Amino acid sequence: MFDIEEELKKLPSQPGVYIMHDARDRIIYVGKAISLKNRVRQYFQSSRNKTAKIEQMVSKIAWFEYIVTDSEMEALVLECNLIKEHRPRYNTMLKDDKTYPYIKVTLSEEFPRILLSRNVKKDKNKYYGPYTSAGAVKDTLELIHKLYKIRTCSRNLPRDIGKERPCLNYHIHQCAAPCQGYIGRDEYAESVARAQDFLNGHYEGILKMLEEKMKDASEKMEFEKAIEYRELLSSVRQIAQKQKITSGDTDDRDIIAMAKDDTDAVVQVFFVREGKLIGRDHFHMRVGTDEDQRQILTGFVKQFYSGTPLIPREIWVQTELDDMDIISRWLETMRGQKVKIIVPQKGQKERLVELAERNAQLVLSQDKEKIRLEEVRTLGAVRQIGELIGLEGIRRIEAYDISNTSGTESVGSMIVYEDGRPRRSDYRKFRIRTVKGPDDYASMREVLMRRFAHGIEETRKMEDEGGDFSLGSFTRFPDLLMMDGGRGQVNVALDVLGQLGLEIPVCGMVKDDRHRTRGLYYQNREVPIDTHSEGFKLITRIQDEAHRFAIEYHRSLRGKDQVRSVLDDIPDIGPVRRKALMRYFKTIEAVKSATVEELSQAPGMNRKAAESVYAFFR
User: Fold this and answer.
1) Closest by Cα among 343, 193, 139 to 257
2) The domain 253-367: what is its CATH number?
3) 404-421, pLDDT tens digit by residue?
4) Regarding the domain delimited by 4-91, which CATH topology (the fold level of the hierarchy) does it fall under?
């Protein structure tokens, strides 16, 4: 039995992170402290200064734990990681989990490429962004390849120069073919440098050059070329118009402001790179009625930059943040350079923050009804399910499905919904190992046993190693287990959980004669459900998603087996050549219809191997 009063006496006067749990062992709040003893004790002391949200949170605390750190900085980093991992109910939370596209120039290569990237690493490459639209990035990349003829292939140059034919991009004039030695290293480097100028927003040179080429082609009556230059000119002007100058300098910065009402807040971020506004985005926050601007923006900055790979030199915010110096030092450690957090007081800087605030207010007013409907569809639907079966506090739901074809290559899927939304990062696939033939009950037993035994083992390992919370999703057990079936599947799940000593509610999704869900099976009784309710719609989405995920995995395995069974039977064709053929021709049908000469052109193929493939299919 956890005695809160006794445990409060044992708290150390050191910096660290404290973790509050409720009676069902769920993490409901994570915080950091310079002194754990002073900070945690404050929650349990009578005080008129407590907000309603804190009062409610304290009433639900069943026990707490803490992790001591060497500094407040380490505590901040750990706090951010734990909040991101566990998404506690009483922390101010980002509702959006977004990733942004970047443009990557691979300067680490002798013949650099320019690519779309979702990750930013500390390497020798150059990254531009973040951009708020992947479509805009793709349009920009397409234009760059047309203008500067930068390669997109993954060939190792200069090692592989001349080893293979030039690709289609060379023939459609979107690559200068450095793979053939048609352009020298210095000339290619000049093209990459001009492309970087373009990405930095220096459009004047390319606009002037395209205008001259268009006029020259017209005078020479080369009208097709003139039209091509005109279209390129139009594309460059469109991109140039989207990037508006926001200041006279060339610094990178994010401008952050927010607007709120009683239950929701919207934070607007302007992304400024090289002195130009390259994009903006807004984020919905889950907040309490008594949380102020300072608390909300502090929570946003910590969560947003713990998951954003590119940190700018300056961050302009609407108001002072809590622990601003500590947050600034934390950002500097991630960036590797100085980061300034600024609260503009006058002039153009203040006007830009006000502009971000007005945009946030506009989004909040326009999206209020949309937010309300989304809440009904997600959290409201989860509450409906809980009320149907008499279960409170459901947040995490796991559902499972089995897929096979005549009992062969059976697979299982595990999908996860949190607060009524899919949490795809926690989805898992299982290839059935021990069951032969079409036995769905035995296959489900294996999947559940592997999933929860793995979770128990990971949890034990975490505890033995002193509380490393960075482990995978298997350590997080569901509040409700939903089985795709009735009594049989539910009993399988209950038996597995009983063997492992786990107490997790299990609910079956019962179908009618037409294979449509008609109700829930819970605690040995069928619970009818209104088929027009949001709870029913959520159950249907969960059921369909579990089925879809299992089918896709099964289909991918079947596809791999078909490729292996066809090509691996050909003399002189091993795994390396099989992969090379599929990469080169894309489909089995293309391999079948290829001539000996065409087969010989594939990487790693010689005349003898090509003849073997050709003869095999005829």
Assistant:
1) 343
2) 3.30.420
3) 754 456 788 899 999 898
4) GIY-YIG endonuclease (3.40.1440)
